[in-house]
Design goal:
Blueprint: E1 6-9, H1 24-35, E2 39-43, H2 53-56, E3 62-65, E4 70-73, E5 76-80, H3 85-98, E6 102-106, E7 109-112, H4 116-130, H5 140-143, E8 148-149, E9 158-164, H6 168-177, E10 181-186, E11 195-200, H7 205-216, E12 223-227, H8 233-238, E13 241-245, H9 250-255, E14 258-260, H10 267-274
Parallel strand pairs: 1-2, 1-12, 2-3, 7-8, 12-13, 13-14
Antiparallel strand pairs: 3-4, 4-5, 6-7, 6-9, 9-11, 10-11
Length: 278
């Protein structure tokens, strides 16, 4: 492939599996692609605090985080929109009042609510089980190794809030309670969702790709996007070529331009070869 491309890769379920295992083949693919002059960015729901050294050590050109609320090219932050502090207080108080455990996703760290570690264990295990993985050894600490507990939860640096759903009604009520935020769910389709989340309104991965491409002066015609879940659909719709992994959800596979192999079956590497990126 002669022309240099810009490649956006989701992290959870796409670059790494749901046990946070990064396939060596994916590392090889990204490094070879960058050697060939292509740019590679992660485009994730994670905040920067969740992008651990083993991911940065692959070699990346930057990141889009918080499902689009944070854009970084190299070491330069070119966009960062956070939940206002008064809105964060409202969210924290509302979740406490409903008895729902949660965590705040910030670039400075992940801040867990008082009982998230205990309440979240069975939920994270169910999430892992649904992804076809062995849930028996999964813990909150294995999934969120640097989660911080005991800190003040009234913060001014929150990108997104994730909370455990007791029922789907909690998500529906969050839509009414927070008209100035973007409510979503994850961990299952529709009423099977395990988590609700609240993020910055009117932001998604696709819109932030526009911000980044405008900054680096690259056409949308020269882009690839890789994802596995519903939240990745705006990214695949935005980019010239959208690739879903076979281990992903039915919705994204149905709309993707190409479906590659599963994460643990060298999906990233095989797709990079298929498209001549390496």
């Amino acid at each position: 492939m002669d022309k240099r491309k810009v490649i956006f890769i989701d992290v959870d379920g796409t670059l790494v599996n749901y046990e946070n295992v990064l396939p060596k083949s994916a590392v090889t693919a990204i490094r070879k692609a960058r050697e060939n002059g292509h740019k590679v960015y992660i485009c994730t729901g994670r905040s920067e605090a969740e992008v651990y050294d083993y991911i940065w050590d692959i070699g990346l050109d930057g990141m889009i985080g918080g499902n689009g609320s944070y854009v970084k090219n190299g070491n330069e932050v070119i966009f960062h929109q956070m939940i206002p502090e008064d809105e964060t207080r409202h969210v924290v108080d509302w979740l406490h009042d409903r008895g729902l455990e949660f965590y705040l996703e910030c670039n400075s760290g992940l801040y867990g609510s008082e009982h998230f570690e205990e309440a979240g264990l069975s939920v994270i295990q169910e999430y892992t089980k649904r992804k076809g993985r062995d849930e028996s050894k999964v813990t909150i600490r294995s999934v969120f190794p640097e989660m911080i507990f005991g800190e003040n939860l009234y913060r001014d640096d929150v990108n997104k809030v994730s909370f455990i759903l007791r029922s789907y009604r909690d998500h529906l009520d969050s839509i009414e309670e927070f008209p100035n935020l973007k409510p979503g769910t994850w961990g299952g389709a529709g009423e099977k969702a395990l988590f609700g989340d609240l993020g910055v309104k009117d932001i998604d991965k696709g819109k932030s790709i526009d911000i980044l491409l405008n900054h680096i002066g690259t056409s949308i015609d020269d882009t690839f996007a890789f994802g596995d879940a519903k939240v990745d659909i705006p990214m695949l719709e935005k980019c010239a070529i959208g690739v879903a992994v076979a281990s992903g959800g039915d919705e994204i596979k149905a709309m993707a331009d190409y479906v590659t192999d599963a994460v643990d079956e060298d999906g990233i590497y095989n797709a990079f070869r298929h498209f001549g990126l390496i």
